[in-house]
Write a structure and sequence with these properties.
Elements lengths: L7 E10 L5 H11 L3 E6 L4 E7 L1 H13 L6 E9 L8 E3 L19 H7 L43 H8 L20 E5 L4 E4 L2 H11 L4 E4 L4 E6 L3 H11 L8 E3 L2 H7 L4 H7 L6 E5 L15 E6 L3 H9 L4 E5 L11 H8 L5 E5 L11 E5 L2 E6 L7 E15 L9 E10 L9 H18 L5 E4 L6 H7 L4 E4 L2 H13 L5 E11 L5 E9 L4 E7 L2 E2 L4 H5 L1 H12 L2 H6 L12 H11 L5 E2 L2 H11 L11 H9 L11 E3 L2 E3 L1 H12 L3 H22 L4 E5 L6 H13 L4 E3 L10 H11 L1 H5 L1
Parallel strand pairs: 2-5, 8-14, 10-12, 11-15, 17-19, 19-20, 21-28, 23-27, 28-29
Antiparallel strand pairs: 1-3, 1-4, 2-3, 6-7, 6-14, 8-9, 9-13, 10-13, 11-12, 15-16, 17-18, 21-22, 22-23, 24-25, 26-27
Helix pairs in contact: 5-9, 13-23, 15-18, 15-20, 18-19, 20-21, 21-22
Length: 756
């Protein structure tokens, strides 16, 4: 088209996950196909396109841009405006110039099929290359130091591309055009195998066959992944799994298993069609899948019928399975309550007594990111841990906030969240903040996100709990501070994901949260909107014998519930299996503590109720891991039974005294299936009763208790059968991993009062 004959000239700004996903070459080739002129460049805001040509061609271009972008892209907003013609000649891809930082950071994604094919092709120059990647796959978030996403801003900046890689990188028609982690055998990071004292054993591709040999011999290896190290061992070797558990001090918590491909997984497990889609998606999360007939080591996930499974997602994994054709344990390399480890030096210091050998490469992990965990419920994917593939996660909210807001979440399953303009961003899983190392990781994450976006918060939002480390940190920053009640934040997190601003009926059930009255909440019913909430229901408070000890010992919770209903003499005459777990004089001591309120704080926690039921059922008296009670009760649940226990409710206060009496009778007869089934059915009935009284409101279900698949499925089914609109989190964590998002949502909606 000759100069000066353009019929239309546009500026297009595309916001969202649009960098590091092959968007510029996509725009380039599409513009060329329609004989359009102009240019495209990355900016801190997103993608900037100048476009000139015929009106028809531009219209077709815009349709393709909107409906068929690159598969890794996630468009949040497209801004199109006309401009005076610049008389562009041809179409160019420009270097990044604008250093404004507001675009979304691309998450790490699994190896694509094209790279798998090349890696397995003996005639390809990247045959057997352990870090093969392209614009459609590989590390992103884990190697980024700052935005815009250019090689010079990643941990690949120290590796000089060879001539062939440079040619691919510079060619807009090549799949690796501006693939920032691009490298090959000749110019990329070096793979190394060492023992736990850092003595070298092998380098390059010899590492993989040697590592497989060590795994076959029962060794435990720390193998570097995308966002951190995995601890790996043979998933069929009972002794190796037992050794790993013993060394890591993880006696019962389920371990994740990595399979080479979906066909192998289906030999051991029974995924449904939707779970298969998740397992083979570009995100490659850990998916909770039903066990099958063919067994792995029985101590991988003891006493439950699901396994956290994933498919190999990094090239190093794929190559390892060529030499080790069996499933592998792949659990995060960390101590309990500590963040995942990102370098070999730290690994030797922290886990030198756990691992036998280490597989490492010298591409630094800038930002650690754990594997995501999801499960399917009611044909919907529920996120249990926000990590690799999904995080950082961004949402667009209606309206515009002039403030920069940082929300720092809770103490357990911590994430942070930030807001600016019309965007909310949720970080990957940080973890439980009970150690110095975890708190250092939290602070490093805050600084990292501030660096990403040149972000200095005007406002910090935190929980109300006076002893949370995040609360103390927030108070120390000297910024305007907002504190949001824990369970209200749970409700708001769900509302944020779905963009809800109206009043809702919210059920917020979890283990622990600081209540407005200074007691421990956790079985709460609210009428809530983003501005305020009213507590209209809760479990009648009961005492936690031993305080924090009760969280680790469900038998204490069950005993406290007995004291609420029976005298000490009556309790001592009951023939309950759980009472066998107390010494003869302990009942008297515990009753005195309960009676005199010594280290026995009040709580209304639904999570603790689940744990008490597990103790009544004689399946769990000491917690092995968080959520164990709920998972064990699911194993007992009888879907054919509709038994509901009697309960009382007055002014919204739920009194379980009559139910406890019934459960005692059943426990003495060891009718544990009836206890588990009746308890879950009763909770569903309680939710139904509240919802019937507020039938005009949509329903929100949030909090860690709703991770219980049986319980949540029953709730959603019953409520939807009544025509109710039910929301529970899918893309963001329903547990405390979503608290920061709820805190943020409150601050966004109350910005006017913050500015006044």
């Amino acid at each position: 088209m000759p100069m000066g004959s353009y019929t239309k000239s546009l500026i297009i700004v595309v916001k969202g996950v649009v960098q590091g996903v092959g968007f510029r070459p996509f725009v380039y080739t599409t513009a060329k196909a329609y004989h359009l002129c102009g240019n495209v460049s990355n900016t801190g805001e997103g993608l900037l396109i100048h476009l000139e040509g015929s009106a028809d061609a531009i219209e077709q271009f815009c349709i393709i841009l909107r409906d068929n972008p690159p598969k890794l892209a996630r468009i949040e907003h497209i801004d199109i405006r006309e401009q005076e013609s610049k008389n562009f000649v041809g179409f160019e891809i420009l270097d990044s110039t604008d250093k404004t930082k507001t675009t979304s950071i691309p998450p790490d994604v699994a190896m694509c099929d094209e790279c798998v094919s090349e890696m397995n092709n003996s005639h390809d120059r990247r045959y057997g290359y352990y870090l093969i990647n392209c614009t459609q796959c590989g590390p992103r978030y884990s190697i980024i130091e700052t935005l815009p996403y250019d090689r010079s801003s990643t941990s690949m900046k120290i590796f000089t591309m060879c001539t062939e890689c440079q040619e691919e990188y510079n060619n807009p028609m090549n799949r690796r055009y501006h693939a920032q982690p691009i490298s090959c055998h000749a110019c990329g990071p070096v793979l190394a195998l060492m023992d736990k004292e850092a003595n070298p054993i092998a380098q390059g591709n010899r590492v993989i066959s040697k590592a497989a040999e060590l795994l076959k011999n029962g060794s435990i290896l720390a193998i570097k992944g995308i966002g951190g190290f995995h601890l790996m061992c043979d998933a069929s070797n009972e002794s190796a799994v037992t050794t790993l558990r013993m060394r890591k001090k993880r006696p019962k918590k389920p371990l994740a298993v990595m399979f080479s491909h979906i066909d192998e997984l289906c030999e051991y497990l029974l995924p449904n069609e939707q779970e298969v889609q998740l397992l083979t998606s570009k995100e490659r999360p850990i998916v909770l899948v039903q066990k099958g007939d063919r067994s792995l080591a029985h101590n991988i996930a003891p006493d439950i019928d699901t396994i956290g499974a994933m498919i190999a997602y990094a090239p190093l994994h794929h190559l390892l399975f060529k030499y080790f054709p069996s499933p592998l344990i792949a659990t995060s390399a960390n101590r309990s309550d500590e963040p995942i480890i990102r370098n070999a030096k730290e690994l030797r210091e922290r886990l030198g007594d756990v691992v036998d050998f280490i597989v490492d490469f010298d591409r630094d992990i800038v930002n650690t990111v754990d594997d995501s965990i999801v499960q399917m419920i009611q044909n919907r994917c529920m996120t249990l841990r926000m990590g690799r593939g999904y995080a950082p996660f961004s949402l667009v909210h209606t309206g515009f906030t002039p403030l920069k807001i940082l929300a720092v979440g809770g103490q357990q399953k911590n994430t942070i969240s930030l807001a600016y303009e019309d965007k909310m961003i949720l970080s990957p899983h940080i973890g439980d903040l009970h150690t110095i190392e975890a708190m250092e990781y939290f602070q490093r994450s805050v600084e990292m996100f501030k660096r990403f976006y040149d972000f200095q918060p005007d406002v910090i939002v935190c929980d109300k709990h006076p002893t949370y480390a995040t609360v103390q940190w927030a108070k120390d920053q000297g910024k305007r501070l907002i504190q949001v009640q824990h369970h209200y934040a749970h409700a708001l997190a769900c509302m944020a994901e779905f963009g809800l601003a109206e009043k809702v009926l919210a059920f917020c059930f979890d283990g622990t949260g600081y209540g407005d009255d200074g007691t421990i909440w956790g079985g709460e019913v609210f009428i809530a909107d983003p501005y305020d909430y009213q507590r209209i229901g809760y479990i009648k408070p009961f005492r936690l014998l031993g305080g924090e000890k009760a969280i680790k010992e469900p038998k204490r919770v069950a005993l406290a519930l007995l004291f609420e209903v029976y005298t000490l003499v009556e309790v001592s005459t009951l023939k309950l299996p759980l009472l066998d777990h107390f010494k003869s004089d302990e009942l008297t001591l515990h009753h005195k503590a309960w009676e005199k309120r010594i280290n026995a704080p009040l709580c209304s926690s639904m999570g603790r109720m689940f744990e008490a039921m597990a103790s009544f059922c004689d399946i769990l008296h000491d917690n092995g891991y968080e959520g164990e009670a709920g998972r064990r009760l699911e194993e007992l649940y009888d879907p054919a039974s509709d038994e509901i226990f009697e309960f009382a409710m007055e002014n919204g206060v739920i009194d379980f005294s009559t139910m406890i009496q019934k459960i005692v009778l059943l426990a003495q007869k060891k009718e544990f299936i009836r206890i588990a089934t009746g308890f879950i059915n009763t909770l569903v009935a309680i939710i139904e009763e509240f919802s019937d009284n507020y039938c005009v409101l949509s329903i929100v279900l949030s909090g860690g208790v709703f991770q219980n698949k049986t319980f949540l499925t029953l709730c959603v089914t019953r409520l939807e059968e009544k025509g109710r609109r039910v929301y529970f989190q899918e893309k963001t964590p329903i547990n405390d991993g979503g608290i920061a998002l709820g805190q943020l949502y409150y601050a966004i909606h109350n910005e006017k009062s913050l500015l006044s």
